[in-house]
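In response to reviewer comment 3 from the previous cycle, which asked for concrete evidence that the modeling workflow produces usable outputs, we include below a single protein chain processed end to end. The sequence was submitted unchanged, and the resulting structure tokens are shown without manual editing.
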Amino acid sequence: MNKKVIITGSTGMVGKGVLLECLDHNSIDEVLVIGRNKTDISHSKLKQIVHNDFTDFSPVQNKLKGYDACYFCMGVSAGGMKEIDYHKITHTFTLALAKTLFNISKDITFIYVSGEGTDSSEKGRMMWARVKGKTENDLLKMGFKDAFMFRPGAIIPLRGIKSRTKSYQFMYDYFMWLIKGIKLLSPNFVVNTTQIGLAMINATLIGYKKKIIKPKDIIILSEN
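The workflow returned the following structure tokens.
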């Protein structure tokens, strides 16, 4: 049975990669993108909702019915941010959409992108890791039919995708050789945007034995 999916963060590096794979995949019939701005992609499968208040999805909740999965790819770098601000964007925004979708249907598969180093104890020294850990924990406790926490390590953008974070794009522009070198030494740490997208689709279609999806799991899932 083919699926209908929701994506956030589709203008970012990971989200755009996931969007492109969903649009190309034969098992995905429809993709709904939610964002503050429309994506520049046009496709027969694609629907878009422009929504500015990510703390409250009630104004658009009727448009969120009938979907099988949500791929929450929206996120920001914690660099220079206060914890209260980072918590709002990372935790509050994510849980606001997750709760809205859960109230619509508990059978949705919810996939959240965090990252390697996320702190499940919520007590570590790294602010971003604690906040991501709390977000993961709260999503896993919510009660969705399936929920997967994706923790990619280093990411290689494919298909002409650029990072919106200037420091990351600088690294990709000038130090891709280093990332590729890391992949040779640690092949299970580095993934690409295509693998992330395919892994999300396959987790939705067939499930997976783990809820915390690390780089090696992303690679395995992408090949199913």
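The helical segments are 13-24, 83-104, 127-142, 166-185, 193-206, 215-222. We consider this sufficient to address the reviewer's concern, and the full set will be provided in the supplementary archive.
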